[in-house]
Amino acid sequence: MAKYSDPALRSKDLRPLLNLIPFLKSYTRQAIIALLALVVASVATLVVPVAVRQILDQGFTAANIDLINRYFLTMFGVVLALAIGSATRFYYVSWIGERVVADVRDALFAHLLTLTPQFYEQQKTGDVVSRLTADTTQIKSAFSSTASIALRNVVTLLGALGMMIYTSPYLSILAASAIPAVVLPLVFYGRKVRALSRKAQDALARSAAFAQERLVGLVAIQANTQERATEKAFETATTEAFLAAQQRAFARAILTFCVIGVGTGAIVALLWLGAHQVLAGHISGGTLGQFVLYAVFASSSLGQLSEVWGDLQSAAGAAERISELLAEKPAIASPAQPSVLDHPVRGEVAFEHVDFAYPARADALVLSDISFTAEPGEVVAIVGPSGAGKTTLYSLIQRFQEATHGQVKLDGVSIATLDLKALRQQIAAVPQDPTIFSGTIAENIRLGRPEATDQQVVAAAKAARVSEFAEKLPEKYQSILGERGITLSGGQRQRLAIARAILRDAPVLLLDEATSALDAESEALIQEALEGLTKGRTTLVIAHRLATVRNADRIIVLEDGKIVGQGTHAQLMKKSPLYAKLAKLQFSAPST
Question: What's the pTM?
């Protein structure tokens, strides 16, 4: 995680923007058109002073009326070329900016989907979302309007400098003496602007993360009457972001003052020196006018570059934050050459001497020497007190966690050698706290198998008893559930998760207290549905209520991360003191 947050790894220039070049390569044709249009517009701009010189040197007399008319007619053509070139350049540069940022967002989101849950346990989701939205918007601004302005002014500046040298080498040498006074503020304050831009973006991301976290937990805030305290904490976060932005704006203002002040002052000095050159007969008035116009172009271009330089610095900060995310590697990834399961998959799940400890606490084993095999079609229940390691077993089977020692196998093949998607396609899971998305009922069920037909979705809904509440709604299965399924009760959420598992129709089924949020009547209905669901597939059931697993083919008892008993309910009542104790606490009349 160091590269994601270590300030020492942050660069001090525009180099992070180079990371976006691969996204530009797909749009070479549009970039060439934009550059050609830029050249046309810049050449048209640079032609104007030449015409002004000719008119001034020829003089405004009746004898020169035809020449003047031709010059101004040519000027209209130049203006038309300038307008067409500028419009074309603006369109294509803006188009490229929008397209590149859309591609960056797509690539970043796709990459975020590959990162393991551990990453999101250590990073604030609000900060990640800020990088996906606010930072990419910052880049869009740079690639569209800012890039367009910068390119135009760079070409104009170079062209104006070249024409200044051609027009009057002497005055050009004098003008060159002012360049250090312009460049030094760009270098010094440019770096400062970039650092402050990064600081402002980080502060904004922190405030966004704070707001998201508190809004998700709004019920807890209101229940504990902490609205005012939360409001003040958010005000502190936004004030921090404002102060950072204020510092950035002040640095940019100083930068603009230095560049424009020095540039304009240099033009005035050149005009004064040039006037003496004209009086001495060394150059004509038209030549001085041409030179001054090119000097104005150069100064104006430098002034605008100083302004967009700050935007480019901000974009570089945003690109850096995005690059950090793109550089983040999944803690668990598919092997380069994955093994292939035989088809059809039988669903045999085996743990062979498995140990597990979290990387941050490598000396504290959560699971120790776990060995058992769930045969195809067998229902195996995992029971034990809280903290025994039951849910960790599920994480290992799905490879959301990696065994510290030993192997987990599916049909005799180590899951560490399988492609992650290929592995997880063989597993259907019903968690204790299922995730519900803000789409429709049908969309939430179809998460189990996106290609399923409407008829298959409805059949799964009926089997999981989702139909009992879905078909009473005005839009039925097209009813919107709201963010995180806020319109559903806990039991309805679990029934939706069970419907997903039914639709997925995988050979391995993981149930984590799948009926814990149901009332007695609903639980009886769901248990009936689950009995049909478990037939023909390997099922592992985490159970806190032993009544739900009394009929399991085998029950495994965990305590402190170790297996302390295996067998049927009747067998464990006789030979497992821990199981007997748990049963006594839960059953009004202990069975034997």
Answer: 0.64
Q: Give one DSSP letter per residue of 46-82, joined into a string.
A: HHHHHHHHHHHHH-S-GGGHHHHHHHHHHHHHHHHHH
User: Binning pLDDT at 50, 70 and 90, where does residue 502 land?
Assistant: confident
CB atoms near residue 591 (< 10 Å): 12
For residue 400, which amino acid is it?
Answer: F
pLDDT band at residue 10 using 50, 70 and 90 as cut-offs: very low
Q: Measure Cα distances from 551 to 96, 126, 380, 508, 576 in Å.
A: 63, 45, 10, 19, 17
* Domains with residue ranges and CATH for the chain: 2-327 (1.20.1560.10), 339-425+542-592 (3.40.50.300)
Q: What are phi and psi of 220, to 5 degrees?
A: -65, -40
Question: How many Å apart are CA 91 and CA 30, to the nearest integer?
Answer: 10
d(CA 537, CA 548): 18
CB 302 within 8 A of CB 161: no
CB atoms within 10 A of CB 125: 13
Token digits of residue 394: 């599920």
Residue 592 pLDDT class (50, 70, 90 cuts): very low
- DSSP secondary structure letter of residue 233: H
- Looking at residue 375, what DSSP letter applies? -
Of 219-233, 347-361, 414-428, the poorest mean pLDDT is in 219-233
